[in-house]
Amino acid sequence: MGQLPFAEEDSPNERHVESRPRAQSDIPVNPAPDTSRRRFGRRSLVTFALLGGVLILAALGCDADGHQSILSSTPWTLDGVGGPVAREQLLLFNVLLWTMVVVFVLVEGALLYAAIRFRRKPGDPLPPQTHGHTPLEIAWTIIPTILILGLGVWSVIVLFKLEPGEAVRLARAEGREPVRVEAVGHQWWWEFRYEDPLPGDEATKLVTTANEMRVPVNTPIIMELKSDDVIHSFWIPKLAGKQDVVPTKTNSMWFLAEETGMYYGQCAEFCGTAHAQMKFRVHVMEDAEYKAWVAGFAEPIAFDPQSPEGKGQQVFLGAGQCVTCHTIGTSDVVDPETGEGVQHARMQTFIEYTEWLAKRPDERLADVRTGNEPPTAFAAPNLTDLACRVTLGSGLVDRNRETLRQWVRDPDSIKPGNRMSELAAIYQTRLDHRADLTEAQLGDLVEYLSAQGPAVCLQ
Question: Which domains does the chain have, with CATH numbers?
């Protein structure tokens, strides 16, 4: 009971069982049914077709001439990028990419050839086993090592060229100094601050603007990158690669634009609700035009109190409460004691207030009772050269009187998640969160803001 049945020749009771090694050809092979092979073949074809379709769609989405493309329309000449930094980065990218493509094609090609040419057919015996080919193994060890070392050394050399010291070297080789610009990332806009926009010029001034940076052509620009809230990433694809903007830390990068025109930038690090709408532009200008912009920045403009501009100024300073966060008509006046400007002071106040909010509730309550609660102020774009800007809302819409009116009336309709409608007092007194201003006040304010800018922009 409980014993398994045995064939007669395999019976455990058989005393004399002759055993012999089985020939390799005697090993049974169970070929897969033809239907299974056909089904597998069809699945493979469908898979390859889908992968091919994905690759084609991905290729169609690439536009080397796009505003924010890092690629060049003619990779062999690197035309289409705007300066030496972007050119060095693109050349390194192309060499690394095509080296990997060649290696991939050779290795995968050899693999596919071997899989097809030497595939085992039904009924075939097992192939003879070998331990390898020593010269071949040495070759495919040495060649990748040489490739990796060569590309690695070159990458390090390129990284040194991307350091700001290279910008200083290039500028001093021509007997001048680079222009230094401080870029501060805010949720969700960019502030640009020039402490010395005309190096070597005794009549220089502090210039602070937002979202549209202006620089002279063929001049090395050193960027000092800061953040007053979260991590951002500064990126001008046609001029230079990405650089993180980290709170409490100053990172640096440089670029040089060889042609005048407009270059497009973007925050490349997710930083909150309106991250995708945190754009900026770089205007590359001729030297004379750039100097005229600097010279005319924050020059006093007198308005007739009864004119639309004069009435708009009263709204800006009064009913609109815009002056609480925005600076206008000044080159960000510097406090002689601290050496910092109005915008910078607002940024520092915002940081201190944010740190205070991180305290425990009982500590905040104690500060309120003792009068140690920090003031609330928020850095907002300097509007002194608003007439020079071609966009609003950090590059979202073209600037004109209609879009400016819509922006002031209802910022959320243009840029959802913006801080102006969240923080400014005039948006808190209505249920629809629109500006608590009359149409006449809005019209006057638009006229006043549209008149702000150096003469070179108002012509």
Answer: 64-112+135-296 (2.60.40.420), 308-458 (1.10.760)
